[in-house]
Design a protein that fits this description.
Blueprint: E1 13-14, E2 37-41, H1 74-86, E3 91-95, H2 105-113, E4 124-129, H3 134-143, E5 148-152, H4 158-165, H5 171-183, E6 187-194, H6 203-210, E7 216-221, H7 239-247, E8 252-254, E9 265-269, E10 282-286, E11 299-302, E12 307-309, E13 318-319, H8 320-325, H9 331-343, H10 349-354, H11 369-372
Parallel strand pairs: 1-13, 2-3, 2-11, 3-4, 4-5, 5-6, 6-7, 7-10
Antiparallel strand pairs: 8-9, 9-10, 11-12, 12-13
The structure holds S-adenosylmethionine and iron/sulfur cluster (2 copies).
Length: 374
């Protein structure tokens, strides 16, 4: 059963400018988590209707997408991104909706890729896409400074994939996009959401396809984001089951996390001596439901129209666009406001979900993934 959308976008919190300026020290929230990553949603529109994200029944011709004037402009996004970097952000991910639907996105990529950290280092800039427009855009994005990209792909079988994207989009075109990104010289990752009785039969074919391809495949547990997808716990395939299935086909060895706050547990394909064979590559398991990683969550999210969300499951965001457009705040004032918001952060939804009974969490009000960005 799908649940009707309560439009949480209409509500927001004022982003106050605190009387005292931010001191310049690195930020830490109430659970001692630094601010390190920023996900920026550049559009709430998408050309797919993945049933776990934008079910057709809700996101139909009557759905009110944000009017263009409400979206942050590229200049506003870049300005906010610079402020976030001054506060400790080192990694930025562009997302959506489908980010490649935003016209001239490469112009934004070019602006963001020029931002440097206070130590003069480059940012870790990446983008998540459904891959449908990637064949056309890969070279433009690479030339604009995008070196890393994540493509979402939930199966290799056309019938399975088409039933998941729900717009009859063929697998082949996404694979062409992935190939285009690789030949443009980008580092490519592939994300697969696993949903019981939908695409579990694609786990092994996907592992086989991307093994030794130079591409890391990551399996994501189906999450209870938003309220429209009718999420049920019994449709979640625990990462431990995915791991067991792959291990019954290929030997794997655990790898250490490459960064604090990394969401994926990494496993490398092993050689006949039981050592990681780098030429075969690795897989990742993102266990957002069965093994909450809130204690190391360093991610802030900026919605399409400039609201700051502190958690994927939050119901309210802080209106930063208001600070820029109406309050004419200076960069320093915006930094103080964000610092104040982050230092009061207590969000840890997935950890709390672990203590909820059954499907209890799905009655909560919260924004949709396509609006806040995955
Ligand atoms: N449209 C782009 C795409 O699909 O890659 C970017 C936005 S999408 C919201 C970002 C990521 O969220 C995708 O990898 C998608 O598979 C994932 N996602 C969406 N809904 C999800 C859910 N209910 N559970 C787990 N992952 C989900
Ligand atoms: Fe679109 Fe991405 Fe959501 Fe699928 S997961 S509907 S491609 S935004
Ligand atoms: Fe971070 Fe919220 Fe996800 Fe926990 S539930 S990992 S706090 S986004």
């Amino acid at each position: 059963m799908k649940i009707k959308l309560v439009d949480q976008r209409l509500n927001s919190l004022r982003a106050e400018i605190p009387p005292l300026d931010w001191s310049g020290e690195l930020l830490s929230d109430q659970l001692k988590r630094p601010l390190h990553d920023l996900r920026i949603s550049v559009t709430d529109r998408c050309n797919f209707r993945c049933n776990y994200c934008m079910p057709k029944e809700v996101f139909n011709k009557d759905y009110n997408y944000l009017p263009h004037g409400d979206l942050l402009s590229f200049e506003e996004i870049t300005r906010l991104a610079k402020v976030f970097v001054s506060l400790g952000v080192r990694k930025i991910r562009l997302t959506g909706g489908e980010p490649l639907l935003r016209k001239n996105l490469e112009i934004l990529v070019a602006q963001l890729s020029k931002i440097t950290t206070p130590d003069g280092d480059k940012l870790d800039l990446t983008l998540t896409t459904n891959g449908s427009l990637l064949s056309k855009k890969a070279l433009l994005l690479k030339d604009a400074g995008l070196n890393r990209i994540t493509v979402s792909l939930d199966g290799l079988d056309d019938a399975v994939f088409k039933s998941m994207n729900d717009v009859d989009f063929p697998v082949h075109d996404v694979l062409d996009g992935i190939a285009a990104a690789q030949s443009a010289g980008m580092d490519v990752k592939v994300n697969m959401v696993v949903k019981r009785q939908t695409n579990t039969n694609q786990i092994i074919p996907m592992a086989e396809h991307f093994r030794a391809s130079g591409i890391t495949l990551r399996f994501i547990e189906y999450m209870d984001v938003g309220v429209t997808n009718g999420w049920r716990m019994d449709e979640v395939v625990p990462s431990s089951d995915v791991l067991a299935l792959i291990r019954s086909n290929y030997p794997l060895v655990p790898l250490t996390a490459s960064a604090f706050g990394e969401t994926a547990q990494r496993w490398g394909y092993a050689d006949s001596f039981g050592n990681w064979d780098r030429s075969l590559g690795e897989i990742g398991l993102i266990s957002s439901v069965t093994q909450a990683f809130c204690s190391t969550c360093t991610r802030a999210r900026l919605s399409t129209e400039g609201k700051l969300y502190l958690c994927l499951f939050a119901s309210l965001g802080f209106d930063l666009r208001e600070l820029i457009r109406n309050d004419c705040a200076s960069d320093r004032q915006i930094a103080s406001s964000i610092a104040h918001i982050w230092e009061n952060r207590v969000d840890r939804y997935s950890q709390l979900r672990t203590n909820m009974s059954g499907d209890e969490g799905k009655t909560a009000k919260r924004v949709e993934m396509s609006y806040i960005g995955g």
